[in-house]
Design a protein that fits this description.
187 residues, TIM Barrel, 5-stranded mixed beta sheet, 16% strand, 5 helices, alpha/beta
């Protein structure tokens, strides 16, 4: 499958997830269970010792996930072989540094991880055909002022708000960015 087709499928999967959520909230449609920020064995902070990639992806499928975008740090892990008619894997990589961590959803090749600021990181993700997602936005490296100062993106900009221990803080952060006039979708 060509890179442009995979990017299109990845973007469509994210858009369908967002649209299905909106439809489900109005009483119709279908909810999809997915994970856009999830580490596997290739990440330094994977918390399940001794588990292989195959075991991890099958576990995600068996837990009822409809889609997973494995976001290993600095590693674009090939998960295509796990995609089926009921479980979709989306190419993804977590990048960043002194200015926060970001997912590059739907990219086909690793990208440079040396931008100097948030805007350059978003630009690099989009140039690679990816959809940018701000991970754990309450990190001190990423301020809402920086997010509000971003140029308009050519793709959908996502922000993680449900990620474990800090979710209430992240929701408040997201609401502040929305109140500042920035269109950004939560995950």
């Amino acid at each position: 499958m060509s890179g442009s087709i995979k990017r299109l499928i990845s973007a469509a999967a994210v858009c369908l997830m967002l649209a299905a959520t909106a439809v489900a909230q109005t009483g119709g449609g279908h909810w999809y269970k997915g994970q856009l920020h999830c580490h596997g064995p290739a990440s330094f902070d994977f918390k399940v010792p001794g588990v292989t990639l195959d075991q991890w992806m099958l576990k995600m499928r068996d837990l009822g996930y409809d889609f997973v975008a494995l976001s290993d740090h600095g590693v674009l892990t090939d998960t295509d072989r796990f995609t089926s008619s009921t479980f979709v894997t989306i190419p993804n990589i977590e990048v960043g540094g002194n200015f926060g961590h970001y997912n590059a959803i739907g990219i086909q090749h690793p990208i440079a991880n040396n931008p100097r600021n948030l805007q350059e990181m978003i630009d690099a993700i989009e140039a690679a055909g990816g959809i940018p997602m701000i991970n754990h936005p309450d990190a001190p490296e990423v301020t809402s002022a920086q997010v509000l100062a971003l140029r308009p993106t050519s793709s959908t900009l996502l922000m993680e708000i449900l990620g474990g221990w800090s979710s209430a803080v992240w929701v408040n952060y997201w609401e502040g960015v929305l109140a500042g006039g920035r269109q950004i979708f939560s995950t």
